[in-house]
Design a protein that fits this description.
8 helices, globular, alpha/beta
Length: 319
């Protein structure tokens, strides 16, 4: 299992400093979030925050929990993603969702608000981002977007694409099938506790889908064999109780989780966030390796999947 933390407070300059502290404290990933206008919150642009984080870190995976691509022009989203991928020397991931409608930068400004339309926009956007970020001529013709050959250069660092982790709203088939076609899944369930039992259900579903794919009855895009399928869960662990925190993540790892993302959306301030960062990730005894654990879900074989104590998303992150 790998461990990340979301910087839920602070401007871009502060985020750069906190990211450096998190990397020094042993966190494997540092994340911001994607919000534009939520009440009176002071929010910097996530791409600017990621640039600051990229310049202050050397190893940590970077991303936003989660991006809301449905309200961004796909070619501009692709250009920004490629820029951060290059600036970070290939450390960007793209967690994505439909978007949280408590952000005024949806309905208030005329962006799509129905789940059906946002889902269609997300699918087209992801296809466009993958196509344009490779640095080769690419054209697209869909229901919502269409354009002739266009080339964005320079290209991304990562191949065959920047990893994409869609939100998988269990047990909804459309959301889960979308995640199955990319590089990982951020597991969410609206009406159930996020525990190992639920994650094992998700894992079994993914494993069954892969058996069908191997039989030729289902198409799943290929990814490099050295890029395992990630199962991402987020929540909160007690900084002052390392053993208790480790027991939470250990059970999830045994159920199949490959990433734990620490996220305090409700009560964090700068002091508490810095304290949680400095306490380090909840690895537990013998859990300090940053390499892939045996439980990580390999794309070429059925594996297992987990989920964690659920925390509410921030008032404007995409789901």
């Amino acid at each position: 299992m790998r461990y990340g933390i979301v910087l839920t407070v602070g401007d871009a300059r502060t985020a750069g400093n906190l990211a450096a502290e998190a990397e020094a404290a042993g966190w494997d990933g540092v994340f911001t979030f994607d919000a534009v206008a939520i009440g009176g919150l002071e929010l910097d642009d996530p791409w600017v925050i990621l640039a600051a984080m990229a310049l202050r870190t050397e190893r940590a995976t970077l991303g936003a929990m989660v991006f809301a691509p449905t309200r961004r022009r796909p070619w501009l989203f692709a250009k920004a993603a490629v820029t951060i991928d290059r600036l970070s020397h290939g450390r960007l991931v793209l967690p994505v969702g439909l978007g949280a409608l408590d952000d005024a930068a949806f309905g208030t400004v005329g962006e799509a608000v129905t789940a059906r339309e946002r889902a269609a926009l997300l699918d087209e956007t992801l296809a466009i981002v993958e196509g344009l970020s490779g640095g080769e001529p690419f054209a697209f013709h869909g229901e919502h977007y269409g354009f002739g050959l266009m080339t964005i250069r320079p290209p991304r660092v990562q191949q065959p694409r920047i990893p994409v982790w869609p939100v998988g709203a269990w047990p909804h088939a459309k959301a889960m099938n979308r995640a199955l076609g990319w590089d990982g899944v951020i597991v969410q369930a609206a009406d159930r506790p996020a525990d190992p039992a639920l994650l094992r259900e998700v894992t079994a579903w993914i494993a069954a889908k892969r058996v069908v794919a191997e039989a030729g009855a289902l198409a799943i895009p290929d990814s490099p064999p050295d890029r395992p399928y990630e199962v991402v869960v987020n929540g909160l662990t007690p900084a002052g109780d390392p053993a208790g925190a480790a027991s939470i993540t250990r059970a999830l790892a045994e159920a199949g989780a490959t990433w734990w993302i620490e996220a305090d959306w409700e009560h964090a301030d700068l002091d508490s966030l810095r304290a949680r960062i400095s306490a380090g990730p909840p690895r537990g005894c013998g859990g300090g390796s940053r390499t892939a654990s045996p439980s990580r879900l390999d794309r070429s074989a059925p594996g297992s999947v987990p989920r964690a104590p659920r925390s509410r998303g921030p008032p404007g992150t995409a789901r």
